[in-house]
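Sample log: LuxR family transcriptional regulator.
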Amino acid sequence: MSPQSPVVTVAVIDDHPVVAAGIAAWYAVADPPVRLLAAGTDISAALHGPGRDADVVVLDLQPSEVGADFGTLRELVTQGRNVIVYTVLDSEDTALTALDLGAVGYLTKAEGAHHLVAATHAAARQLPFTPPAQAGAPGSARRPVRPTLARREIDVLRAWFQCESKALVAQRLNISVRTVNTYLDRVRIKYANAGRPASTKAHLVARAVQDGLVSLDEL
């Protein structure tokens, strides 16, 4: 989403056309506005045609014989897309796995228009969104995979979330931009080693919120 265009754009991937139509209707009356660029039953809706330019991808996570199928989510995250999982799968473990893989938000289809629209605006700004139904999931003690970050790494991370550029982070902390990059690289390596890769700023924000390093009110 560019500063010149306040309209958030979305691509929807869902097996059921009626769901996509319902989401489109919700977005049509959203304030601030949301525009649906494309909808389809597979990843091509987000990779080709108008959908490739969408700010946010709303993904219906499909069940498989061994649980949820995370293949499409992995591919979208690898390509740097901001993904909201919107699914019938009401499972804390599934939600945590999706967030660990890089989803910016996770909502069940029991969540209404208000939460999906709010999550969409948050994702367009590369911020995580946790609806009330999933509020307990990110802090679950059953996922002891939080990496140990040094105090200075946390300081740089929090400053980066609150600044528009790494140059401003460097100025605020009285260090060089190169040093800022070094600290952020270290943080990414630690998350990758913990099995929770964070290749983009949005993913790092999501990890920090999940691990209690920063609150949404501070962003």
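Observation: The longest helix spans residues 177-193.
Observation: The CA atoms of residues 45 and 125 lie 21 Å apart.
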